[in-house]
Amino acid sequence: MRVLAAMSGGVDSAVAAARAAEAGHDVTGVHLALSANPQSFRTGARGCCTIEDSRDARRAADVIGIPFYVWDLAERFREDVVEDFVAEYEAGRTPNPCLRCNEKIKFAALLDKALALGFDAVCTGHYATVVNREDGTRELHRASDAAKDQSYVLGVLDARQLAHAMFPLGDTLTSKDEIREEAERRGLAVAKKPDSHDICFIADGDTQGFLAGRLGTSEGDIVDEDGRKLGTHEGAHGFTIGQRKGLRIGHPAPDGKPRYVLDISPVDNTVTVGPADSLDVAGLTAVKPRWCGAAPAGPGTYTAQLRAHGGETEVSAEPAADGAELRVRFTEPVRGVAPGQAIVLYDGTRVIGSATIATTERARPAGVGPA
Questions:
Q1: For the chain, how far is it from start to end, CA to CA, in angstroms?
Q2: 269 vs 77, 96, 149, CA distance in Å?
Q3: What is the DSSP-derived secondary structure letter of residue 368?
């Protein structure tokens, strides 16, 4: 196949491109310039899309022996990922920009351009597996190595996008150290390069500072579940559901136990805090479902993952009749579920699909103590 390999400048995408070429595919490397004003150098494991990353990707492509290009998708990335991230926080939700990037950039803007140029597939360094069925359809599954699995952030891929996706790292039981050793054997200079962490477009890791710069500061109240004022803050966008640290409440709770962010109201700029058991959620409604194949025909029992590095929990889920919503009930209450997060459904190792959490149902009403 003619394969377009997305090369970030890191070790995973470089090894993925090398494996695709070694498998006999006609591979072309491409680095996505996603920053309008890229810095010359990264800050350790923070940031990406720097000039250094572009050069690292080019050097890797030269060693592999494949053509290499840089495509400028900075404006599309700003609109679909960065501005969406800011708008979600402004609305009191907690987004995952990695999912949005996979949905809107790598497997939409990039894939569309690749197909228009005659490529058959887009290759990335994600740890996930694509299974080809006898009927010609494809399924997305967890990586063979569960410790490195990244299927959660790929749960936004629909059947069309999955049909043109290639993940050469997903079906091998190799540790990250072994991937680095493979890169070194192949002569790839990125073998010892640190992995990127945190949000790629917030290079210093200061998400609250980034949002304050975009949204400004606005003093609001921190209240308990009964509405009693406990303190003030400089912007509700600086908080996330389940947050414990940085609440700056002047006096302790009556029971002496820690308090957590339970709710964020951007309308009146209020943050509600309370005890840990008030974070327990019994069910939720999610919107904008995206299915990695046909949508479920009715209710079903699945496992669900709520965070990129979180565990699985058993749920019952059913799409609404109009297909616009997904209704989910947890077998056992789960803690710290925030609107804006993605819920990804699994049947065993297979990814069924994902949706964006809109509302949650608490396991116990606000202000009601445990039985």
A1: 61
A2: 28, 22, 37
A3: P
